[in-house]
Write a structure and sequence with these properties.
alpha/beta, 135 residues, Alpha/beta knot
Length: 135
């Protein structure tokens, strides 16, 4: 399975180190392509064709980590890559998204949301592998 994370803005400190850390950990389980764009206008052009598109949105569906792992397994069995889209500081409307995912009811900086997403992808793969996932 392949994940794409299409996000507005270039990763900066203090988030860049955490992103690299989780990208490295996750690379043992799945292929992850992080695509950074300058602004919201560039997002839709970078979404891979045929990918299952999941927009991160505070109004979206929330999952417990174990349930999120099951959700990812369903996507894998469906045979489509998953593209997570993270807008800029003011959010994003993406009418063509297959699903909206919330990391919780609180608002997070969009770069921190990227870190949280990669950590949860890594955790989900540990859960699916039956390995301990509390770091």
């Amino acid at each position: 399975m392949r994940y794409f994370v299409v996000a507005v803005g270039k990763a900066r400190a203090p988030y860049a180190d955490d992103l690299q850390h989780y990208e490295k950990l996750l690379s043992r389980h799945a292929r992850v392509d992080v695509i950074e764009v300058a602004d919201d206008d560039g997002l839709e052009r970078r979404i891979p064709e045929r990918a299952y598109v999941c927009l991160l949105d505070s109004r979206g569906r929330t999952y417990a980590s174990e349930t999120f792992a099951g959700w990812l397994e369903e996507r894998r069995q469906g045979g489509r890559d998953v593209c997570f889209v993270i807008g800029g500081a003011f959010g994003l409307e993406l009418p063509g998204a297959d699903e909206r995912l919330s990391l919780g009811p609180m608002t997070f900086p969009h770069q921190l949301a990227r870190v949280l997403l990669l950590e949860q992808l890594f955790r989900a793969h540990k859960i699916l592998a039956g390995e301990p996932y509390h770091l």
